[in-house]
C-alpha cells in the first residue's frame, strides 16, 4: 500500500491491521482451545486425516478394554465351576474314607448301615452342588451336555473368540460319574464303591485340569489384550494429545501479536485524525 494518498474515507492501514488481528485472534483461540482440552485436534479442521485415524484407534482401544472385561467374565465362570468341582472332590474324598471303612470286616452290619447313610448323603450333596452351580442362572453342569461359552476378545478390526467348555458330554453328577448305585452297606459294596470313587475322582481331576488350562489361556489373553490396548491408546495419544510446551510458546506468540496488532490498529485509526490537521 505504498504510495497511498492521504484520505479520510479509505484507511487501508486500519483494514490491514484488522485483517491481521482477525488471523491472530483465530490462532490465539485455537491455541487456548488446545491448552484447555489438552488435545492437539480440537476441531476437524485442525487435522482431518489425523482425526479419522485417531477416532478409529480410540474405538479399538475402547473395544479392547471391553475385551479384557469379557475375558475376566470367562475367568469368573471357570472359577465358579472349579469351585464346585473342588467341593465335589472333597465330598468324594470323604466317601472314599467311608467306603474304605465299610470294606473291612472289622465293623458289623449295623455300623455299615450307618456309614451308608452318610455315604448316600454325600452322593445327594454332590448332585445338589451340580444342580446349583450356575452363572447368571445358567447351569454350568448341564446333564444334557457340555456347557460352552464363546468369549469375544476381538476389536473393531478383527473378530476373535475364545471358547470355554465345562463338564463332560454326560455332565458330572453321580450318574455320570458312575456312583448312582454305589453303596457301602456291605463289605463288597464298599470295595466296589472304592473302584467307582477312584474313577470319579480321576474324572473330576481331568475336568479341573481342563478348566485350569482354559483359565490360564484367558489370563494370558488378558495380558496380551492389555498390552495391545496400551499400544493402541499410545498411538491415538501421539495424534490427538497436544504438546503443552509448544502450545504455551504459541500462546505467548499470539498474545504478543494481539497486543502489537491492537497497537497498530490504534495507530492506523489515529492517522485519519492526523489528516485533519492539514485543514487548520
Distance between the termini: 27 Å
Radius of gyration of CA atoms, rounded to a whole number: 39 Å
**SS summary, helix count:** 5
Helix content: 55-70%
Number of strands: 4
H-E string = HHHEEEEHH
Q: What do we call the CATH topology of the largest domain?
A: f41 fragment of flagellin, N-terminal domain
User: Would you state the CATH class of the largest domain?
Assistant: Mainly Alpha
**Strand composition percent:** 5-15%
Give the biggest sheet: 2 strands, antiparallel
Description:
- The structure is a single chain.
- It contains five helices and four strands; from the N terminus they run αααββββαα.
- The chain has 280 residues and is mainly α.
- It has two domains: 12-38 and 242-279; 66-239, f41 fragment of flagellin, N-terminal domain, CATH 1.20.1330.
- The strands form two sheets. A two-stranded antiparallel sheet has the order 1-2. A two-stranded antiparallel sheet has the order 3-4.
- β3 and β4 (161-166) form a beta hairpin.
- The longest helix is centred in the first third of the chain and has 55 residues, at 48-102.
- The protein starts with 11 loop residues before the first helix and ends in a 5-residue tail after the last helix.
- The model has no long low-confidence stretch (mean pLDDT 87).
How would you describe this structure in keywords?
280 residues, mainly alpha, f41 fragment of flagellin, N-terminal domain, 2 domains, two-stranded antiparallel sheet, 4 strands, rod-shaped
